[in-house]
Amino acid sequence: MRIGFIGLGGMGQPMAENLLKAGHQVAVWNRSQAPAEALKAKGATIYATPSEFTESEVLITMLADDDTSRRVVVEQGALAALPKGAIWLNMATVSVAFTNEMAEKASAGGHRYIAAPVLGRVDVAAAGNLNILTAGPAELLDTVQPIFDVLGQKTWRFGERPEQAAAVKLAANFMLASAIEAMGESSALVGAYDVTAGDFLGMLTSTLFAAPAYKNYGAMIAESRYSPAGFTMKLGLKDVRLAQQAAESKNVPMGFAGVLRDNYLDALAHGDEQLDWAALATVSARRSGQ
Asked: What positions does the domain 3-hydroxyisobutyrate dehydrogenase-like NAD-binding occupy (predicted)?
């Protein structure tokens, strides 16, 4: 399959590399050249501008947020360059409103849009073991399933409207942020009684909360291992805000989301912008004087 790929960050580069390994023809564009050059050595074609994706059957984007995606794909001409009938496969975490806007824009230009955000960090992406959360017409999802099979261990289909996949990803990230916050507050509580976070979280993640999210983030919190970031504090704040927006548009109250937002702002105010979002756990400890 002729695949275009835009966004070669920590997640995007290993995903594009896996597509090359699987035998797909991959053309790439990235703002910085180093990741693109690394893929060129493995068989990728590098485009100088986003407007050169004139032969891609599928365009995959893995960009940081709504604004970056709009600027690169729409304003810099990537979407308009695609041949009629091509598929824009957005695998990034973006807002529900942006998803609906881009689905309409793609359709108006004779293209098709699929939302397929992913669960997993960089090492999971490199291993091709992502969980892919997607929504769109069944026949369209069937067309790109071979791509999903390369990139992920399982594809989860949530309906025929792309906004459904966007909402699921925001809800999932909200739950992860909530788990981090709960572990941080609980660790601060036991820390006030001279129990280490390592002992406390080691017990919990081996018993009541023996699940991947708690075990992985619990270990990071116990070891204060927040750099290099797999997912930054700034991105965590973005996703909580997007969840709030999605909830407000449907009159869904999410009281805890406000707590998370304020604690992210606290962390950013203390200079923690580039730390992993697991460092949200430090807010409670700092407020309690630990």
From this structure: 165-282
CATH number of 166-288, picked from 2.40.160.40, 1.10.1040.10, 1.10.3720.10, 1.10.10.10: 1.10.1040.10
SS3 133: strand
The Cα–Cα gap between 249 and 195 comes to 43
Residues paired with 3 in a beta bridge: 26, 58
Number of Cα atoms under 13 Å in the Cβ half of residue 137: 8
What is the side-by-side order of every strand in the sheet holding 152-157?
118-119, 130-134, 152-157
Q: How many angstroms separate the CA atoms of 75 and 63, rounded?
A: 14
Task: Cite the active site residues.
Answer: 169
pLDDT of 84: 97
Residue range(s) of every CATH 3.40.50.720 domain in the chain: 2-160
**pTM for the structure as a whole:** 0.96
Closest CA to 93 of 143, 168, 160, 18: 168
Instruction: Give ∠ CA 256-260-265 in degrees, rounded to 5.
Output: 145
Tens digits of residue pLDDT in 86-113: 999 999 999 999 999 999 999 999 999 9
DSSP 257-276: HHHHHHHHHHHHHTT-TTSB
Q: How, if at all, do strands 45-46 and 130-134 pair?
A: unpaired
Tokens standing for 69?
């995606």
CATH number of 2-160: 3.40.50.720
